[in-house]
């Protein structure tokens, strides 16, 4: 999970692109620097100097991403479009997950210097604003997915899973929806787990930000702390947490395989066409300067 709403948005942009409707990919990507800046500003209430510097850095980040990363996304989308035409095993789903994760790691790592520099310029009131921003986002998540009634939580999680399945496959039948929801609810990852992981990462990020504000350590020390935090998102520091993450990953791969297995030929074709169209949008974007 990410460290805050703003950092999550820009540094995980690579992965987010895979979940954007095809007709919006080019528009969203070309506006990504502006959209990311808005999130940073909501999180920190930037002053004029911070804002000007961050806007330049965000544009440089997206220029790098367009030049160096989009060709990889085109290949990933093309491979996924081909996969979608036939059966997908859990092993193949995990193979694709590893490739996506590698791209996300690169995106996160590239953004570390930018984030470290920003943290070192924060004032105490901006740190307080970050805490408020995080609390608001957590409250929104709790409202949407952590209702007091278990049946309401199950219904919300089921709607979320169905929504994203239908992005790829188009409309699901009632039987398919019920099968998908049962599989999701029976899985090891709950909304409470997601919330706990987000809160854990947010707390670690806030500790780094607070140290940057109170001690003003050198840039390289803040970068090292952020890189440690990023690494622990993918490789947790304890055996118990690593085992838990592995369990979630494996369950996700099986869910992808079983969902695809229950798709009709028409739905598989829809998924393949969607992924192929995304690949073409990203190919066009990669050639633009």
Task: Explain how this protein is built.
The protein has 289 residues and is mainly α. It has one domain (5-287). It contains 13 helices and no strands. The longest helix is centred in the first third of the chain and has 36 residues, at 48-83. The protein is globular and about 55 Å long. The protein starts with a helix and ends with a helix. Residues 1-23 have low confidence and may be disordered.
Biggest β-sheet, characterized? none
Backbone CA Rg: 20 Å
Q: Which structural class do the helices and strands define?
A: mainly alpha
Order of helices and strands: HHHHHHHHHHHHH
Shape: globular
Into which percentage range does the β-strand content fall? under 5%
